[in-house]
Amino acid sequence: MAGRKAAAPDPARSLALLWGSHTKPGRSGLTVRAIVGAAIELADSAGLEALSMRMVADRLKVGTMSLYTHVPGKGELTDLMFDQAYGDLYADEDEPARQPGGWRGALEFIARRNWDVLTAHPWIHEVPTMRTALGPNITRKYDIELRPLDGLGLTDVEMDSALTLVLTHVQGTARAGAEQLRTQRDSGLSDEEWWRQISPALTTVMSGSHFPVAGRVGTSVGEHFQSVIDPAHALTFGLGTILDGLAQLIESRSAVQ
Amino acid sequence: MAGRKAAAPDPARSLALLWGSHTKPGRSGLTVRAIVGAAIELADSAGLEALSMRMVADRLKVGTMSLYTHVPGKGELTDLMFDQAYGDLYADEDEPARQPGGWRGALEFIARRNWDVLTAHPWIHEVPTMRTALGPNITRKYDIELRPLDGLGLTDVEMDSALTLVLTHVQGTARAGAEQLRTQRDSGLSDEEWWRQISPALTTVMSGSHFPVAGRVGTSVGEHFQSVIDPAHALTFGLGTILDGLAQLIESRSAVQ
DNA sequence: GACTGTACCGTACATTGTACGGCTCAGGTA
DNA sequence: TACCTGAGCCGTACAATGTACGGTACAGTC
Questions:
Q1: Distance of CA B68 to CAs A237, B74, B129, Å?
Q2: Which residues from B are below 8 Å from A206, CB to CB?
Q3: Confidence band (pLDDT; 50, 70, 90) for A10?
Q4: Is B126 an interface residue toward A (CB < 8 Å)?
Q5: Given pLDDT bands bounded at 50, 70 and 90, which one contains residue A208?
Q6: What is the pLDDT averaged over residues A150-166?
Q7: pLDDT of A4
């Protein structure tokens, strides 16, 4: 690894890449879209860390350096992967708003869809998104997801905050779930097997200190979920709580009006 | 990089490392604690990715491979760093529970403290925590943070879910903040400067498509925060909303009893 | 004073992203 | 047809990584 990626050295180039169509092939049939597609497939099964330019090139039966004709570097490639992964999130502009249950149903729908994407493409968690989130698909996504919150009496900033809260929660729990799966796969041990393995050593080492509440609660949680965490439950519980909280805000706003 | 880290190859060894005192120096004064301390200092300023065994060894004026006498590898080292970073979180067992404002005040206190740690040590976000969260400091932390939720009528699983929800939110927003800072530092551009730079190219490229709600809200947010995101605001807004939601749950439970 | 085990570390290797410079070929011009 | 030009392609090279391996040096015990 030579130089640290200093964001995108040329923002305009990145934008053109993001918003371009990328369908004209070179003389060996190489396309930006093909590169991005191959990279996504590889990352889906191996993770971003394990994804290398050599692997992408091999899969496309092309020399490694040929990729650099179409894509400035790995950083920009992940940016493109990111935007493409969010390509098919919503069928049309009003799909969330059309869900039953008003804004609440819409936000639930949005949360589930985001969860699905993050589960299908766990490498998304590793993409630095701060200054990239301006591809066409991301922008469209933001617009669509804000719509169900429009006209409820919230200010623009509150609309953004509410959406951000929901999405942050989904991301956090999905990330935990992805990490759990990855760890299980890497180690070849289920959470239960792993726990059985370290349990004796743990009790030995922990003798002396004791943690009354943590012990009791930890045991209950373990018995209930057969694991330290249950991402699906965390998603549901958190989403419900957050929506309850948002409901209070929205009601207070419509009472004022 | 040779072999992918398959979790800790020897869990018992890791546990002994985690729970041991690590204060007996070798013949050149090398200690596990010293290694972990040096690694944390380096990671604080450069990030986990940039942290290398060679750098740690250099800082301690020791050959690179000497570190491997005390620590099995980089993975285990980050595990130790993780636990140590949470060492001084709470002065004593009841500090959160002692805060004014009941369980709500306690959870706010817990959130702020976690936020502080994550802000001081942004590399924590990159540590895989799933099967490591069993060091002495982490265990103590879990115990202390559960206490304010005990005796409110919640089930054990609900106590855990509530705490997890708050901590996931803090982590998510802190992560976004860390990424923002890092990007600004790496690129040398403030969000505002960066925006001014790409703005023309963006409007060019976006002409044709238009996003009514996203455009309006995005502009409002940008004007309000001088940035795409404001992590501090996201923390406060989200925490307030979440606690409002939890209040409903807790009230419903105490009504039943 | 000799022995033994632990601490220490120099070298080597596989793997990464990508800079650099050369080769190849499609398409246009004369 | 002959040639030229520029873009697409890619082989080699380099710096950096984590760590396996095997050797060296020293502290403590008999």
A1: 43, 9, 22
A2: 19, 139
A3: low
A4: no
A5: confident
A6: 97
A7: 37
Helix, strand, coil share (%) of chain A residues, nearest 5: 70, 0, 30
State whether residue A147 sits within 8 Å of chain B by CB. yes
Top pLDDT among B236 and A187 is at: B236
How far apart are the CA of B138 and the nearest CA of chain A, in angstroms? 11
Instruction: Tell me the pLDDT band of A5, cut-offs 50, 70 and 90.
Output: very low
Smallest Cβ–Cβ distance between B150 and the set A150, A213, A246 belongs to A213
For the ranges B46-55, B88-97, B196-205, the lowest mean pLDDT is seen at B196-205
On whether the CB atoms of residues A153 and A254 are closer than 8 A, the answer is: yes
A 59-98, residues with C-beta < 7 Å of strand D: 62-66, 68-70
Whether B71 has a pLDDT exceeding 70, the answer reads yes
Claim: this prediction has a pTM higher than 0.85: yes
Q: Would you mind telling me the total number of residues written for chain A in this entry?
A: 257
- A211 neighbourhood in chain B, CB within 8 Å: 139-140, 142-143
Give the pLDDT mean for A195-214. Answer: 82
List the single residue in A130, A168, A221 with the smallest CB-CB distance to B179.
A130
d(CA A15, CA A9): 12
CA distance A219 to B156: 9
- Report how many Cβ contacts below 8 Å link chain A to chain B: 219
pLDDT, tens only, B103-132: 999 999 999 999 999 999 999 999 988 777
∠A93-B208-A10 over CA atoms, to 5°? 105
Pairwise CB contact (< 8 Å): A4 & B212:
no
Token pair for B159 = 């106590």
B68 touches strand C (CB under 7 A): yes
DSSP state at residue A88: T
Task: For chain A, say whether B159 makes contact (Cβ under 8 Å).
Answer: yes
Average pLDDT over residues B79-95: 93
Chain B nearest C-alpha distance from A228 (Å): 8
Q: How sure is the predictor about A253, in pLDDT bands with cuts at 50, 70 and 90?
A: confident
Residue type present at position A30 = L
| Token pair recorded at residue B248 | 């409903």
| DSSP 8-state code for residue A214 | H
pLDDT at B164: 98
Whole-angstrom Cα distance, residue A229 to residue A173? 10
What is the DSSP secondary-structure string of chain B? --S---S-S-HHHHHHHHHS------TT---HHHHHHHHHHHHHHH-TTT--HHHHHHHTTS-GGGHHHH-S-HHHHHHHHHHHHTTTS-SSTTHHHHSSSHHHHHHHHHHHHHHHHHHH-GGGGGS--TTTTTSHHHHHHHHHHHGGGTTSS--HHHHHHHHHHHHHHHHHHHHHHHHHHHHHHHHT--HHHHHHHHHHHHHHHHTT---HHHHHHHHHHHHHHSSS--HHHHHHHHHHHHHHHHHHHHHHHHHH-
What is the arithmetic mean of pLDDT over B233-251?
98
